[in-house]
Amino acid sequence: MAKTKYYFNSQTLKYEKVKLSLKIKILKAIGFISTAMVFSFIIIALAYTFLDSPKEQQLKREINQLSLQYEILQERLKKTDNVLQVLEDRDDNIYRVIFEAEPISKDVRNAGFGGVNRYKSLENYEYGKLMMETTKKMDILSKKLYVQSKSYDELTKLVNSKEKMISSIPAIQPVDSRKLRGAISGFGYRIHPIYKIRKMHSGIDFTAPVGTPIYATGDGVVIAQGNERGYGNRIMINHGYGYVTKYAHMSKFKAKKGERVKRGDLIGYVGNTGASTGPHLHYEVFKNGKVVNPMNFFFNDLTPAEYIAMLEMASKENQSFD
């Protein structure tokens, strides 16, 4: 209840009640309301500046979750693209070389993404740039997968028409990967273990215990069996279609000269004969008389992950074993 105010009337010498006119009352009311509104506005402004509303807090949580999911999506796209690049490389440089087919050009693999801005409709969104980049990556990946799928369809037709050729091409490891001791010296320039100089290593060395089985990597005929200087006990197989393989430093022979063998047949055992610094198999592949990298032919018994791991190991410029 408002307090009653009095004033001293000098004429009547009495205290009398203060009576406010309607105008003053209205002005006071307006002043009170205006002051209250100003303070309310200040309080609300401070609250919105320094404090998040429940809705804003929820939106921030959703934005953080979307950012995390976007990063995960980008990483998955990157990994998928890396796997696809490995498949494309093997397609062009291994499968198509084997079947004597022309590799798919980069223009074909990457076609259809230039010229008109096909993502213009996404520009006006708040996160338009982010959406455009992700959509473009997905489109490119889808296009590449489609081209690769068509390439495999073509290769399937070549396989069906060249069944005998497929069984003759050296396409497996000559030694069971479970028997290997881990060290591999690959094709290319390596440090020679005896001369200690950088020298061309024309095959792959698989380190394994003496007596480890060695298998023919493709159908063919044994054209040489015996001792060869530097290579020790070795076997050579003519697979036809221009392919010949050599298996060196063997301890014992199983196959004989003139014998016809199938892929996976036992032909001998790992040894340490000839110019060798430890038990291992030295394996070479020839195509039309020229030595080629055997790594290009291990596609029948290795998964993409196993192939990449072996490729990394074989590509290290370490010391060879012969």
What is the H/E string? EEHHHHHEEEEEEEEEEEEH
Oligomer: single chain
Enumerate how many helices there are, as a single number.
6
Which class best fits the helix and strand makeup? alpha+beta
Give the count of structural domains: 3
User: Strand-residue fraction?
Assistant: 15-25%
| Main beta sheet | 10 strands, antiparallel
Distance between the termini: 110 Å
- CATH homologous superfamily label of the largest domain: Glucose Permease (Domain IIA)
Could you describe the 3D structure shown?
There is one protein chain. With 322 residues, the chain is α+β, with helices and mostly antiparallel strands. It folds into 3 domains: 6-50; 59-161, no CATH class; 177-314, Glucose Permease (Domain IIA) (Distorted Sandwich), CATH 2.70.70. Helices cover 40% and strands 22% of the residues. It contains 6 helices and 14 strands. It has helices at 22-50, 54-98, 106-109, 128-161, 163-168, 304-314; strands spanning 6-9, 14-17, 184-185, 188-191, 198-201, 204-207, 213-215, 220-228, 232-240, 243-253, 260-261, 266-270, 280-287, 290-292. The strands form 3 sheets. Strands 3, 6, 7, 8, 9, 10, 11, 12, 13 and 14 form a 10-stranded antiparallel β-sheet that branches. Strands 1-2 form a two-stranded antiparallel ribbon. α2 runs parallel beside α4. The N and C termini lie far apart (110 Å). Residues 56-90 form a coiled coil. Residues 199-294 form the M23ase beta-sheet core domain. GO terms for molecular function: metalloendopeptidase activity. The chain crosses the membrane at residues 29-51. This is Peptidase M23.
